[in-house]
Amino acid sequence: MSEVPVATCQPTEYEVSILPEGDINRHVFAITVEYRGVGQWAVTQHGSCLGADGEWAQGVKPYDRGDDWLNAHRFDLDTALRLARDAAPHVVVNGAHRDGRVPPHTPVRDDPMSDHPYRVRRGASHTATLAKQAGIPTAGGTTA
Question: Where do runs of H (alpha helix) occur along the chain?
Fold first, then answer.
């Protein structure tokens, strides 16, 4: 009888977030540290890859990047986890941090629907207001 090979196990991904496990928004604000082979790890979030300079670059596909780019965006595990932990409190989704702060580099947009430029109204009144602006008949049969 031949000898059965020994199976190996290796972690290939870590999730880094300031939000606790179980928080409904954790996956949106999480940063992922992903194994890329040969002891190298990438720090990614929503299709972007963190570089050694602290800047996020669009795209995570290694085959369309040169060696210089890969060297600046691949790290040993300890470095990748440190960079991800450092970046986690600064993640911005839909123009705001997890606590609602708006980063200073985000341009202020005019929102005629709100008193505050980043507050979005939800629910029936918001839908009715949008329908009114678009001239769409509402449930009451009136066109606003």
Answer: 26-29, 67-73, 77-87, 124-134
